[in-house]
Amino acid sequence: MSALKIKKGSSKHSAYNLRPTFSDEIESHTLAVIVDNEPGVLARVIGLFSGRGYNIDSLTVAEVDHTGHMSRITIVTTGTPQVIEQIKAQLGRIVPVHEVHDLTAEGRAVERELALLKVQGSGEKRVEALRLADIFRASVVDSTLDSFVFELTGTPEKIDAFAELMRPLGLNEIARTGVAALPRGRIAEG
């Protein structure tokens, strides 16, 4: 009579190992959520985050289908893989939500943000601000004798780097749109 031997602690033949394993490492994820464009939907989505103590690093929303009255909410959030899975599942249960896509998990995505930066200064600082703006491909959208307003589009990291370089040159104010993102390469099914 032969007996099946499984080593104690061996997980190779255990049914309990069918669940995905999650790490405790904090990750940043970009979520695209397609919702009905109606009053209160954004408040319900944000309420899900605040009610459970989840943080939103970036939030953008705009109507993307005028005839179907659908909006796209792009959310950048952080958490462990388990928390991200919980967020996606809970978003999917909200009634006006039609689709939830984790652009980070689904593959490469194009992410861009727009920023306006007001830099005040004169003399060499003014010249240096213009030189750096040229390197970063920032446009001057307003100019006075003592300040510039630069417009910059790029990844959040690019905008952070430009802002850090502008601080000692007189960065006075900054406005950012938040991340807009689309998946690369594949065509969305519709």
Q: Describe it for me?
A:
The protein is of the alpha+beta class and 190 residues long. It contains 5 helices and 9 strands. The chain is elongated, with a radius of gyration of 23 Å.
As a percent range, the share of helical residues equals: 25-40%
Classification by helices and strands:
alpha+beta
What is the multimeric organization of the chains shown?
single chain
CATH class of the largest domain: Alpha Beta
Count every helix, treating DSSP H or I runs of 4 or more residues as helices: 5
Mean pLDDT: 88
Poorly predicted runs: 1-14
Largest pleated sheet: 5 strands, antiparallel
The value of Rg in angstroms is 23 Å
- Termini distance? 58 Å
How much of the residues is beta strand, in percent? 35-45%
Look up the CATH topology of the largest domain: Alpha-Beta Plaits
In short:
With 190 residues, the protein is of the alpha+beta class. It has 5 helices and 9 strands, in the order E-H-E-E-H-E-H-E-H-E-E-H-E-E.
Throw out a few tags for this protein.
branched-chain amino acid biosynthesis, Alpha-Beta Plaits, acetolactate synthase activity, 5 helices, disordered N terminus, four-stranded antiparallel beta sheet, 2 domains, amino-acid biosynthesis, alpha+beta, single chain, Acetolactate_synth/TF_NikR_C, 190 residues, 9 strands, elongated, EC 2.2.1.6
